[in-house]
Amino acid sequence: MAYSQEIFLEATNRIAQRRQNALRAAEYSREQLFREIPRLREIDFELQSIGATIAKAIVKAPADGQESIQSLSERSIRLQEEQDRILEEHHIRKDVFEPRFICEKCGDTGYIEHDNRTDMCDCLQKLMSDISGEMLSDNLTLEDYTFENFSLDYYSKSPDSDGKIPFNRMSNIYRYCVDYADGFTPHSRSLLLIGATGLGKTHLSLSIANVVIRNGMSVIYTTAPDILFKLEKEHFSYQYSEQEDTYHSLIKCDLLILDDLGTEFSTDFTRSCVYNIFNSRLLAGKPVIISTNMTIDELIGAYSQRFVSRLIGSCDRLDFIGDDVRQIK
Ligand SMILES: [Zn+2]
């Protein structure tokens, strides 16, 4: 499959971002570990300076440097043994200092070298295909929806009719979403966002999308009516190959955000599409963020008790409350 230059650049950027994130995370946990166990920092420092001294000795005096190189190497082995011992005592993995790349094959570089050849890694191929799938959701400008420009000021600090304080509830949901986005992996939990229109469900799901994309993973955002309309149209116009592509993209992206569930025109076909998309992703352990303006009872009416139970059972549920923010604005 051929991809445009634009998709290639975007994919390359995201891979670079993944690598940078992995390196930064490794550096961070290293620093934390050193703070907790200062002896590890000393060992690390000495190991590095031994390495540098040996390198210098080899370059400068290859012949008569042998003896000191020998003793330095022995010292270095002893230090490494001590390091391993300390890690074991603290039940820490031996590879704790290694960056944890999303793709171990290429170390998040996108390329693999072997036999003097450089090949594109599968992960870069996959990312390009994911990004072309994202074009499904091209009718939104993501930059407009960030955690930074989400305002809690629109939520009342007085109790509502159920005695709940919208501001407090929404502050918790906001923090939950920030943490969810920061810690997102392609196997994170799914989320179910429930609440009336204008309470910020779309804004927060797109803010999550922004962070997830920035961290190098692929996201498809779509509204249930849009995507089901598209799938239905493709299905009944016999464009099987294209339909499979759309469907395939929805299944394999790292995060699928399905907005406005329940507002689509409900037919047997759309219902079975929703079941299939959700179940396939669930089976593959891939997260979905579903948002709906319907109550649980209304959802059961539109779908089925069985589907809704499954939905609730496999998602973290966030109940949005308050007054329509768009009207207050
Ligand atoms: Zn790779």
How is this fold's topology laid out?
Blueprint: H1 5-36, H2 38-60, H3 66-89, E1 111-114, E2 117-120, H4 122-134, H5 166-182, E3 190-194, H6 201-214, E4 219-223, H7 224-236, H8 240-252, E5 255-259, H9 268-283, E6 288-292, H10 296-302, H11 305-314, E7 315-319, H12 325-328
Parallel strand pairs: 3-6, 3-7, 4-5, 5-6
Antiparallel strand pairs: 1-2
Helix pairs in contact: 1-2, 1-4, 2-3, 4-8, 5-6, 7-8, 7-9, 8-9, 10-11
The structure holds zinc ion.
3D architecture notes:
The protein has a domain at 139-328: Rossmann fold. With 329 residues, it is α/β, with parallel strands linked by helices. A hairpin with a 2-residue loop joins strand 1 (111-114) and strand 2. The chain has helices at 5-36, 38-60, 66-89, 122-134, 166-182, 201-214, 224-236, 240-252, 268-283, 296-302, 305-314, 325-328; strands spanning 111-114, 117-120, 190-194, 219-223, 255-259, 288-292, 315-319. Helices cover 57% and strands 10% of the residues. The chain has twelve helices and seven strands. A five-stranded parallel beta sheet has the order 4-5-6-3-7, sandwiched between helices.
